[in-house]
Amino acid sequence: MGERSNTVWQLIKRDLYRYGGRTDIIALFNKLIYKPGFQFSFWFRIVNHLRRKSKLLYPLWLVSRLMLHHYRIKYGIQIAAYTTIGPGLYIGYVGTIVVNRRAVIGADCNIGPGVTIGAKNDGAHKGVPVIGDRVYVAGGAKVLGSVKIGNDVLIGANCVVVHDVPSGAVVAGIPDSLLSYTGSAPYMKFTTTTPSALAHDSPMPH
Fold first, then answer.
1. Does position 111 have pLDDT exceeding 50, yes or no?
2. Which domains does the chain carry?
3. 121: CB partners within 8 A, 6+ apart
4. Contact between residue 95 and residue 113 where contact means Cβ atoms under 8 Å apart
5. What share of the chain in percent tops pLDDT 70?
6. Given a cut of 50, is residue 195 above it in pLDDT?
7. How far is Cα 20 from Cα 90, in angstroms, rounded to an integer?
8. Start-to-end CA span in the chain (Å)
9. Which residues, in sequence order, are bridge partners of residue 44?
10. Apex CA 90: angle with CA 178 and CA 81, to 5°?
């Protein structure tokens, strides 16, 4: 999941790549203008980065916080500034997305509208979710409590996940039910885990 092993520009670059397979300067400005999900993730990455920097950068951190707050309110994306999210985040459609600040989300994950990734405060699954890489969380899905979601998992629309899900699984229903092991691959585009995927068109330093 290695979010901190990437520089801020590598994280932004990998997020950008998910929105069409390009990382050139034209793609960067295009997505900053026209893609609400990328607008949010861009400022999310900047805020995460600046909080660990010198106090001399406090004015820039403050402006970045204000921008992130603006997009949070505008698009209904309730993801705390310091949530652990791996590179390659894709938010295709916005609207009432809620992620607990202590949740962990891996690389190249898709989050649909109406998704909740939240905590349970009591019971057998008290805690927050840990989600692996290349997980597709379809619209309206809920992932609740200290569940562990493996890599390459597809969570169906409006599914309520309250159990651990193995890698490569497809789950749906309320509560979640295992349907198959065909995984998320048919629904994932422009993932960044292939080493050669980002070898060109970079507007940012490596």
1. yes
2. 1-76 (no CATH), 96-186 (2.160.10.10)
3. none
4. yes
5. 90
6. no
7. 11
8. 18
9. none
10. 105
